[in-house]
Amino acid sequence: MIQRLFAPFALFLVIGFLIGPFLIIVAASFSAGETLAFPPQGFSLRWIAKVFTVESFRDSFATSMMLAIGGTFCALVLGIPAAYAMSRYKLPLSETVRTIVSAPVIVPGIIVGLALLRYFVVPFGIGITPALFLAHTALVLPYAVRVVSASLANLRSDIEEAAVLLGSSRLGAFFRVVLPNIRGGILSAFILGFVTSFNQVPVSLFLSGPGVRTLPIDMIAYMEIVFDPSVAALSSLLAFMSIGIVFLAERFLGFSRYV
Amino acid sequence: MKKVILASGVALMLGMGAAHAQEKTLTISVYAFAQDEFKKIVYDPFEKLCSCKLVVETGNSVERLAKMEANKANPVVDMAVVSMADALAATRSDLIEKIDTSKLSNFDKLYDIAKDPNGDGMSVGYTFYATSIAYRTDKMKIESWADLLKPEYVEHVAFPNVTTNQGPPALYMLGQALGKDSPDLKGAIEALGEKKDEIVTFYVKSSQLVQLMQQEEIWAAPIGRFSWAPFTKLDLPIGWATPKEGQTGGMNVMVLAKGSKNQELALQFMDFWLSTEVQAKLAEALVDSPANKEVKVSDQVANNITYGQETAESLKLIPSDVALDNRNAWLSEWNAKVGQ
Amino acid sequence: MFHNRAEAMALALPAAVFAAAVFLLPVILLLAEGFKSAEGWSAAAYTGFFSEPINQTVFWRTLRLGAIVTVVSAVIGYAAAFAIVNLKPGTKGRMIGLVILPLMISPVARTYAWIVILGRTGIVNQALQGLGLTDGPLRILFTETAVFIGLLQLFLPLMIISLISALENMPRDAVPAARVLGANWFQVFWKVILPLTKEGVVIGGTLVFTGSLTAYITPAILGGSKVLMLETLLYQQVSVANDFVSASVIALILIVMSFAANLLLKRVATARNNR
Predict the structure, then answer these.
(1) Contact C221, B212 (CB under 8 A)
(2) What are the chain C neighbours of B193 within 8 Å (beta carbons)?
(3) Of the candidates A127, A117, A82, A84, which has an alpha carbon nearest to the alpha carbon of residue A102?
(4) Are residues B242 and B297 in the same domain?
(5) Contact A227/B226, CB-based, under 8 Å?
(6) Could you read off the pLDDT of A6-55 as tens digits, one per residue?
(7) What is the CATH number of domain A55-258?
(8) Helix, coil or strand: residue A143
(9) How does pLDDT run across C143-201, given as a tens digit for each residue?
(10) In B182-256, where does DSSP find H-type helix?
(11) B197 to chain C: closest CA residue
């Protein structure tokens, strides 16, 4: 009984802690003041309007979206088969593969950026956009493999073995039996990957170049000297966009049933 | 239908490629600062003038130098703007080339300090700024840099981190005020270290200072003049100190990448940027203080930027070689005394 | 379990080759610079690093802060994830949405929000004074506490999400069964839940620990540069000193710390299984 009451209360506190800063940022986006403040000073839409007048935000937003969606998609295409192989086959080098694939998580971003620039991008003469794309795919790959692995780990493998015994091809069994059951995991992986890529700073810092920048880098550059509530407004707009994405995902994939 | 779309897409791309090939391209590397204004005042008009295309890379001085270094064998950037000390660093790493100032028609209009800041002919200053103390005039009186450390003030002070552009100049002035002005900045760093618990923060981003000032978290902080304008919008009495030791500051310079294939165009661009007209417009937009002495601005604008012959000559700048040779020593001294 | 090796390799290799080429090799080449010296290979740079007292202080501080953030987020994470998985599907989805939400906001913007919340006139201090707990404003901002709070908020969602998917996949009857057999809540957690959600806590823990280790902006802004961390040193070496050898030394230390944390978490989570 105590537990019944305690759990929602604890959850309320945790959620409050997590989204508290977000509420400050949203409040500031609609404020009339020159700085972030709580309670906000007056109401105005001028900061929201200002976001749309900053020209470079538009290009870098497109770049970031392309990297986040495309990079995460490629990472999933590479990562799901790998996760599947590691959980369903007796793979001789399973642990090695897992370590290689998940290495990007534990290396400080600034080192990744520097290393890729000096030993990958420059020697092979790779263009800026492809370099960013490859790097973002590599950075998202660990999330793809790990989260999908986690949802495969507890999915009983006898269902697909049964499907194979009943005459389905291995591939058919994968698409018809396994994939629907790990949808939630894939979606979580996609969201984590998307967020990681979208907020990535240090790697993009070194790999961006003339004419190509990502949004977080643009925002940081903008904030270097001025921090007015327009940055808060942009952050809120991005957050609302992500709420929209999660909402759509929920609509179409029934996300909460599968996570 | 699909085929038609595909075909026209391919045709479009080919066409764009062709148009691209005919156009000259100039790649510049600049500070990621006020880019919308720069586009309006500098980039767009120049593209029209030269009928060429400008590709812009932005970022702070150090990262962009690191990229230039990595791309040394096959330079991507044609011209860059960096800090004075970084220009010297680039000279030492053999990344940049001598600037043929005879090709710059506006060269003679520059203040003397901007003509050849490092005395090696490798860079030309295009803007400079003063660094002094922004402070609450109702709470305190700042007559010397050392006033920041007074017991009644020190708990309301933010000081720039040594790794920021404002850090070393501010330390340099503090050292002068304390009578311990050696190039290793030891005296000043030590004095700060003793008060490190009292000082509110050693800031890394000047943008946070407006926020802290508004919240009355701080009353004073050494800042560069280029970040002054937002403070004037706050509903608080904030003044710009003129300490008796004087103001310090910094200068940003233009450099020419070694091995660039567009040197003529790069020089043309530099000249355009240094012209009285462009420099005046940048000043009026409160973007950059003019290095061109022919620029005349209103009092209101002059109040918000670093303006005039007298100001230019009074700035106590740290010589680039001193900054470069001592950078690592400052850092380890700082980490030991302040960051511990 | 399938046994076709060629098939397994064909599935796993593209990812491994991609990660090795685009990521691992360049990083290894850079890290190797930390072992180069005038007379060939040596670990001199590492012994040099640890011989400086300041570096030792920073190392221990980084380790301590990372460990605290990880442990606290695991404790809170389990409680929150438990509460969430037991909700009705619709509410659950919304809660997960709320947990993910902060991840979408630029970390830099979030640190500014903390300046508002933790400042002398901020909400926390107003509440403390209003409740009569303190007389004057406490200095929270620009201390290690502020860095801790910032890091926790930054990485807790990763822990909660990892734990939710692990808990979801846990057999429904495991906990009631253990309860029926007379286990108390602590035993249930230690002997049943932890082993069954091991994958989740290992992933979440590694992400949180590594994230705290390699965060730059949060300690820099919320710590007021008084809370020097390894990542700050690394950043200084790259951006100020241009010393890539020292930078790669610090980077490898950070990597080893993350790796060790990952192994430790695996051990803690699986050791229970064998008893």
Answers:
(1) no
(2) none
(3) A82
(4) no
(5) no
(6) 778 888 999 999 999 989 889 889 988 888 877 788 888 999 998 888 88
(7) 1.10.3720.10
(8) helix
(9) 999 999 999 999 999 899 889 878 887 777 888 888 888 888 888 888 888 888 888 89
(10) 186-194, 207-214, 229-232
(11) C226
Q: B149 and B221: one domain? A: yes
C240 contact residues in B (CB cutoff 8 A) = 62, 163, 327-328, 331
Contact list in B for residue C241 (CB cut-off 8 A) is: 327-328, 331
Tokens, residue B317 = 């700048």
Q: What is the ipTM of this complex?
A: 0.86
Q: Which residue of B has its CA nearest to A128?
A: B76
B103 and B137 both lie in a single domain: no
State CA C230 to chain mean position distance.
Answer: 15
Which chain B residue has the Cα nearest residue A202?
A: B63
User: Hey, of B64, B93, B95, B201, which one would you mutate to test binding to chain C, going by the most C CBs within 10 A of its CB?
Assistant: B201
Query: Tell me, what amino acid is at B97?
Result: E
Q: Which of A191, A209, A203 is nearest to A258 (CA)?
A: A191
pTM of this prediction exceeds 0.80: yes
- Residue of chain C whose alpha carbon sits nearest to that of B328: C241
Query: Which residues of A fall within a CB distance of 8 Å from B77?
Result: 210
CATH topology of domain C45-274: MetI-like fold (1.10.3720)
Q: Are the C-beta atoms of residues B78 and B263 closer than 8 Å to each other? A: yes
**The Cα angle at residue C190 between residues C187 and C191, in degrees rounded to 5:** 75
Nearest Cα of chain A lies from the Cα of B131 at a distance, in angstroms, of 14
C104/chain B closest Cα distance in angstroms: 21
B55/A224 Cβ within 8 A: no
Pairing between β-strand B220-224 and β-strand B124-136 as defined by DSSP bridges: antiparallel
Q: Which partners does chain B have (≥3 C-beta pairs < 8 Å)?
A: A, C
The domain in which residue B74 lies consists of: 2-128+251-314
Residues of chain C numbered 186-205 and touching chain A (CB < 8 Å): 199-200, 203
CA distance linking residue A238 with residue A220, whole number of Å: 15
| Tens of pLDDT, residues C222-274 | 998 888 899 989 988 888 888 888 899 999 999 999 989 989 998 887 765 54
Let me know whether B222 and B181 are in one domain.
Answer: yes
CATH number of the domain to which B147 belongs: 3.40.190.10
H or E stretch covering B97 = strand B96-97
- Are B306 and B173 part of one and the same domain? no
CB pairs under 8 A between B and C: 76
Q: Are strands B201-203 and B96-97 parallel, antiparallel or unpaired?
A: unpaired
Query: Who among A35, A37, A55 is closest to B39 (CB)?
Result: A55
Sign of CA dihedral C240, C241, C245, C250: negative
- Same domain membership, residue B328 and residue B210: yes
Residues B118 and B41 in one domain: yes
Task: List residues bridging with B134 in a β-sheet.
Answer: B221, B240
pLDDT in tens, A138-171: 999 998 998 888 778 767 778 778 888 888 887 8
How far apart are the C-alpha atoms of B148 and B176, rounded to whole Å?
Answer: 13
For chain C, the domains span 1-42, 45-274
In A, which residues are within 8 Å of C203 by CB distance? 146-147, 150
B322: left (phi over 0), alpha (psi -120 to 50) or beta: alpha
Task: Tell me how close the Cα of B126 comes to any Cα of chain C, in angstroms.
Answer: 23
Q: In 3D, which of B284, C253, B241, C122 has the Cα closest to residue A24?
A: C122
Domain count, chain B: 2
CB atoms C122 and B161 under 8 Å: no
B67 vs A56: CB contact, 8 Å cut-off? Answer: no
Q: In B, what residues contact C, Cβ < 8 A?
A: 60, 62-63, 66, 89, 161, 163, 196-197, 200-205, 208, 211-212, 215-217, 327-328, 331-332, 335-336, 338-340
